[in-house]
Design a protein that fits this description.
With about 475 residues, this protein is of the alpha/beta class. About 20% of the residues lie in helices and about 25% in strands.
Length: about 475
């Protein structure tokens, strides 16, 4: 960017491209700019280019990596990175540390600064107790190389940190948060607005998060692409477990794994997955990475999974890979979570209790497809999930959250309606596939929605069990 001239930023939005084959989600094909596009300009001396929370565990251990651009002038004085972790509830600093930036002579454009330590009496993050700490990073310079009283502040960056540990326990094959198994009361969520299409606003995202909390959901799967950055921040703050999914789906292509197994498509697939992790990994709400959806198995997917685990060993990886009826069933070698879609209740029980092969947590990536007269047996799934004799059955994600129709005016009545395929360009069909929802609209869900209420009843946050009459006398007993 040159201050002396007017710079022009050109943005090209291709309607179709080679990437279309990798993002063939079963949804509206809409084109345009759905999110803000901008350029972040750093002033001279603002050389922090990235800050990564490599670990923030439930035991209080923390590891930060700060990438700092090298000096353009080696004689500029010694630089250091200072970090301070503050508990917003008390205002007290929970941990501070300073590390010197090593101005080595290697050929890399940036140098990595690592800061690590331990927070005493740490307050952990869960969906029920989403406690966050405020992290402040400062890049400082000592022009005299030895007089620390003359430090100059070059740059300040802030982010939030949540301390939690996510792992599949190898002793009992359960997914655990902070050492305790969880039950996933989840829903799939497309980014969709009946008026704005895929340009979802922050107030709409907040409304979705609050609706999920009010109806006893504790998790959301980002189906089937990385969501708007603000959505993850809301999940961090209000407390929702998130499955963050890469933008990789080849829905319906036969054979299913032809792209996933193609060397020519490998770099594009791996790039999408790697960029998802690089953008979102600082969010504590994200407990699982998903490599994609219904894209088949292949060498590219396996290599992407290996690279992901090397980049972020703190979260398990899931990948359904196939579809409801073929090519995978969410139980391939690449996934840490058995995550099939749409098994019947007996099939889910069989998958969650089998002792052979590689036992893993069973979390249905999609089930109880909410289209038409559906969701009637959601209580049967939850009886199976809550059964103490089947601990590896750890829940699932209902398909899906909000009706995906687009608002239009009915030509007969003049009323605003939610239309899908038949209402727009195929009047000869009655296939209304996008009318699938737990809530038909966000405003309607606030008042009365049978499906949302049924789901809320099926997966309550507390579950009671009658153990018989108390042996102790009570003044309330007649």
């Amino acid at each position: 960017v040159n201050d002396a001239v007017d710079d022009v930023l050109d943005i090209v939005v291709p309607r179709w491209s080679a990437g279309t084959y990798l993002e063939d989600q079963d949804h509206w094909y809409l084109a345009g700019l759905f999110r803000s596009v901008g350029i972040h300009r750093q002033r001279a001396g603002e050389d922090v280019v990235d800050a990564v929370v490599e670990r923030a565990d439930a035991d209080g251990s923390v590891v930060l990596r700060v990438d700092v651009r090298k000096y353009s002038k080696p004689s500029g004085g010694r630089r250091s990175v200072y970090c301070a972790l503050t508990d917003p509830g008390t205002g007290r600093k929970a941990w501070t540390q300073t590390a010197t930036v090593s101005e080595d002579g290697s050929g890399e454009e940036t140098v990595q600064v690592r800061l690590q330590g331990h927070v005493e009496n740490v307050r952990t993050w869960t969906a029920e107790t989403p406690h966050l700490y405020d992290l402040t990073l400062e890049l400082r310079r000592d022009p005299n190389d030895n007089d620390r009283s003359d430090l100059q502040l070059l740059q300040t960056e802030t982010l939030t940190v949540g301390f939690r540990t996510v792992a599949v326990d190898q002793t009992d094959n359960l997914l655990k948060i902070n050492g305790r198994p969880i039950t996933v009361c989840g829903v799939n969520r497309h980014e969709h607005d009946p008026v704005l299409g895929k340009a979802v606003t922050v107030p709409s995202m907040l409304e979705d998060v609050l609706l999920l909390k009010q109806h006893n959901f504790n998790a959301v799967r980002c189906a089937h692409y990385p969501n708007h950055p603000a959505f993850y921040a809301l999940c961090d703050y209000y407390g929702l477990y998130v499955v963050d999914e890469a933008n990789f789906e080849v829905h319906g292509m036969q054979p299913m794994g032809c792209i996933a197994n193609s060397p020519s498509w490998g770099p594009a697939i791996r790039s999408r997955i790697a960029r998802t992790v690089a953008r979102d990994r600082n969010h504590p709400s994200i407990i699982l990475w998903s490599l994609g959806n219904e894209a088949g198995r292949g060498r590219a997917v396996q290599k992407a999974a290996d690279e992901l685990r090397a980049a972020d060993p703190t979260r398990p990886v899931q990948y359904e890979s196939g579809g409801a009826c073929s090519y995978g069933t969410g139980d391939g070698p690449v996934t840490d979570i058995a995550c099939p879609m749409y098994p019947s209740v007996p099939e889910a029980i069989a998958a969650g209790t089998e002792k052979t092969g590689r036992p893993r947590p069973l979390i249905l990536c999609e089930y109880s497809h909410a289209m038409g007269n559906s969701n009637g047996n959601v209580d049967q799934y939850w009886e199976a999930f809550w059964d103490e004799g089947r601990p590896r059955m750890q829940g699932g994600f209902v398909w899906d959250m909000v009706d995906q129709g687009l608002q239009k005016t009915d030509q007969v009545t003049g009323k605003k309606i939610l239309g899908v395929r038949r209402r727009f360009w195929r009047p000869d069909t009655r296939w209304e596939f996008l009318h699938q929802w737990i809530v038909p609209s966000r405003s309607y869900a606030q008042t009365s929605c049978g499906r949302a209420q049924e789901a809320s009843t099926a997966n309550p946050p507390l579950r009671s069990k009658w153990l018989g009459n108390s042996p102790y006398p009570s003044k309330y007993q007649q």
